[in-house]
Design a protein that fits this description.
The complex is a heterodimer. By secondary structure, chain A is α/β, with parallel strands linked by helices. Chain A has helices at residues 11-14, 22-33, 35-41, 55-63, 77-89, 124-128, 140-145, 156-168, 185-194, and strands at 45-49, 69-74, 95-98, 110-115, 169-180, 197-207, 210-219. Chain A starts with 10 loop residues before the first helix and ends in an 8-residue tail after the last strand. Classes of the chains: A alpha/beta, B alpha+beta. Chain B: This is Multifunctional methyltransferase subunit TRM112-like protein.
Chain lengths: 227, 124
């Protein structure tokens, strides 16, 4: 899988949109590693929540162009725009939608879901000051903070996703979720088992100051096996 | 926003809304972006799509001569129709317009090709 061009994004963009970093590249590497599985799965609808610059979903859209529709959501309008531009720069076919998580999507429609959540452990106060509404122009600083501030255990947004996962994923759907050790991946795996999902640590990587994981999550009733 | 994407959007997240689908589409400005026709892909994606919303999109895009109101059987054998579906779903790009919740009338603008479906806290 080729890393998409990002030379159209400027420092000014990165003041408001998360700049691709080690975590983004780990998610890309995980998809690359699981490409055979994905090509077999033939996901009709792929979606990345919180797409930021759009590099991950763009790379995927290029790779799966012949079998998938790709969508990207973000609450930050600057990120929606950056994603649209990244897709255009790389000739990828995907649409950008401004919404919260997958709120605007029909139920159980997503076959392949990607999420690199705001995972940094912060105070909940820090997170609660980050409120978006659809009309106001959110400030530069707030846009960026929302891309990483995760509240208690860095899990506030991830926990909301887990609650909604059954409504989001199609019967054969799969989720690749990026986590930090501080997000307590083992806890999440156990929690998901209770929700009738099967989760495995698919990849992990230590980088200075962070230990990152990719969780691969499928329905435990799903016939397609997890490698 | 492609009309294939339109087929997946709902206003169900609004408090009190039951289905929120299909949204009422208005196109103010659109572009047509040619893309490679892959009949197998179109055929494979069809079971995921809601035909009412496919036909609704065709009405707004003024392509009802091409798209029947009721989904015909054995579309896979009808390459002419698959090609027309390809054009409708993947080549028409809505740049400016709006989507409207069928139950509450809440309007979601489409600007620069991006639908803004974000709800305010008092709406959810």
């Amino acid at each position: 899988m080729e890393t998409p061009y990002t030379d159209h994004l400027t420092l000014e963009d990165y003041e408001q949109v998360y700049e691709p970093a080690e975590d983004s590249f780990l998610l890309l590497d995980a998809l690359e590693k699981d490409l055979e599985y994905l090509e077999q799965l033939q996901p009709h609808l792929c979606l990345e929540m919180g797409s930021g610059s759009g590099v991950i979903i763009t790379a995927l859209a290029k790779k799966l162009a012949s079998c998938s529709l790709c969508l990207a959501t973000d609450i930050n309008p600057k990120a929606c725009d950056a994603t649209r531009r990244t897709a255009a720069r790389n000739g990828a076919r995907l649409d950008s939608i401004r919404c919260n998580l997958t709120d605007a999507l029909r139920r159980q429609s997503v076959d392949l879901l990607l999420f690199n959540p705001p995972y940094v452990v912060t105070s909940d106060e820090e997170l609660h000051t980050q409120k978006f509404d659809s009309h106001s122009e959110s400030s530069t600083e707030r846009n960026l903070v929302f891309s990483w501030a995760g509240g208690q255990d860095g899990r506030r947004v991830t926990d909301i996703l887990l609650k909604q996962l059954d409504d989001i994923l199609s019967p054969r759907g799969v989720l690749y979720l990026l986590l930090l050790r501080e997000n307590k991946p083992e806890d999440i795996i156990t929690h998901l088992e209770g929700l009738k999902f099967r989760a495995v640590k698919f990849m992990e990587r230590r980088i200075p100051g962070e230990h990152l994981y990719i969780l691969k999550v499928t329905r435990s009733s799903s016939s397609s096996s997890t490698s | 926003m492609k009309l294939s994407t339109y087929n997946f959007l709902t206003s169900m997240a609004i408090k009190g809304v039951k289905v929120g689908f299909p949204l009422k589409l208005t196109i103010i400005k659109k572009d047509v972006v040619e893309s490679e026709f892959n009949p197998t892909f179109v055929e494979r994606i069809l079971p995921k799509l809601d035909w009412t919303a496919v036909y609704g999109a065709a009405q707004v895009a003024e392509l009802t001569e091409d798209i029947p109101a009721v989904q015909p059987e054995n579309i896979g054998e009808n390459e002419v129709l698959l090609q027309k579906l390809h054009h409708l779903l993947f080549e028409i790009d809505v740049l400016e317009g709006q989507l409207e919740c069928p139950e509450t009338g809440r309007v979601f603008p489409i600007t620069d090709g991006i639908p803004n479906m974000l709800l305010n806290e008092d709406e959810v």
